[in-house]
Every structure is written in structure tokens, then in C-alpha cells.
Amino acid sequence: MDTRRRSSPRLTLPSILLIVTVTFLATLAVRGAIDGYWGGGAPPSARKVCADETLPSGIHQVDYLYLSIFTNAQTGIDFYQPANFTVPSHTLVHFTIENHDNGSSTVASEYGQVCGTVNDTMDWGNVTTSQVDPADVSHTFTITDGPYVGFNIPVPPAPRSGSHSTVVTFTAFFNDTGTFHWKCEANCGETQMGVDGKMSGLFTVI
Ligand SMILES: [Cu+2]
């Protein structure tokens, strides 16, 4: 009997399965590494700041920013006031957004999520929440470039009766300075969507 022939490597079924499995896992690992480096695996609105915005120590300064959303009674155009604004870096900024528009729009589900605030939450009335029904968002405040891309606040509509506005508040901090773009990602009307001074503008950190 030729023992050398018996001891030579042979492609048995288990070894073929092993090779296929190892090759598959290696392919996944390489693709994951490439995607992680180039961001190819992330959704278009990669949320760099959405994962864990727990409050860092060493930030003692506090500032406040008040934004309103109005509807022009004559044109029907909705707009943020102000649309261009500046906040200080290394400072806890308490935001208030008061929405006087009672119209609602649909948004992609990701824009129903609060993203980038401390704890990724906001206060809506007496409720602390991390999301709004994407079928019932009035407007969003969404940063679209720079280190805060993906920062997102879904703003609910004002009540149709009773109170004339809805107020959301949230706290955030921004340590990288620069001027960045924000826009409303809701389908709130062609006359204002993406229009600077209406549903988009500049967000500056100094
Ligand atoms: Cu809008």
C-alpha cells in the first residue's frame, strides 16, 4: 500500500467548507476595514456626533440660543429666525426652538431622531425624548457638513388649536470652530426648502 499517497493533502468536503468560510470572513473583514476608513459603509448622513454625547467635564460656561420658526402670513413661506447664528465653543449651549407652524411633513426616519445633543435627547413640553414620529415632523434643524454632520433636531408642529406654538429645548456643545451649513430635511415646501434664510443657513462656532 502506498502510504505516501494516502498522507498527501486532499481536498475533502470539510476542508473545502473551511476554505470557503475563511475566505468569506476575510472578505468581510477587508470590506469592513475599507468602509471604516473611507466611510463607504455609513449612511449618507453619517452621524459622527450621534453615538455618545455625554457631558464632558471641564465645560463650565453656559450660553443660550433661541430660534423661532414662523410662517409668513402673506406668502405662506416658513422660515427660521434667525437662520444664521453663532455659538461659542467649549460651552454648554441651551437651545430653544419655538415652532409657530402647525403644518406637518414627512421626513426620512433618520431625521425623526434626535442626534448630537447631550444624551441625544431633547425636551418636548414636559417629555424628554430621543425621537419624533417621522410622519409628523414639521421641520428639522440638521447640520449637513463639517464635524457635526448628522446633528439633527426633529421639530414637531404647533398644535392646531389652543397653544400657538410648540417648544423644544436641548443642550449641546461644540468644540470645533468654523462655519457650517444647516438645513431643514423635512418636505416642508419647495418655496423654502434649501433656501438660505428660510430653511437653511449658516451655523458658526467661534
Ligand atoms: Cu422645513
Brief summary of the model shown:
The protein has 206 residues and is an alpha+beta fold. 15% of the residues lie in helices and 29% in strands.
Describe the overall structure.
By secondary structure, the protein is α+β, with helices and mostly antiparallel strands. It folds into 2 domains: 10-38; 62-205, Cupredoxins -  blue copper proteins (Immunoglobulin-like), CATH 2.60.40. It has 2 helices and 11 strands; from the N terminus they run ααβββββββββββ. Strands 2-1-4-9-5-6 form a 6-stranded mixed β-sheet, with no helix packed on it. Strands 3-11-10-7-8 form a 5-stranded mixed β-sheet, with no helix packed on it. A hairpin with a 6-residue loop joins strand 1 (62-71) and strand 2 (78-81). Copper (II) ion binds next to loops. The site of copper (II) ion has 6 residues, from loops.
